[in-house]
Amino acid sequence: MATLALGAAALQRDHAIDRNDADAVEAALAASGDASAFERLYRTHVARIHSLVRRMLDDQDADDVTQDVFVRAWQKLGTYRGEAAFATWLYRLAVNVILGRRQQLGQRRERFLPDDTALEVVPGRSRSPELSLDFETAIARLPDGARQVFVMHDVEGYRHEEIASLLGLAVGTSKSQLHRARMALRRHLNG
Amino acid sequence: MISDPWTDKLSEYLDGELSESERLAMERHLVACPACTTALAALLRVVERARTLPDRPPARDLWTGIANRIAETPSRSEELRTRSWRWTFGIPQLVAAALAIAVVSGGGVWLTVRQPAVPATAGGAAPAAAPLTTPILPAVAGEARYDAAVADLQRVLDAGRGTLDTTTVRIIEKNLAVIDRAIADARRALAADPGNAYLNAYLARTMRRKIDILRQAATIVVSRS
Question: B66 and A179: CB-CB below 8 Å?
Answer without folding.
Answer: no
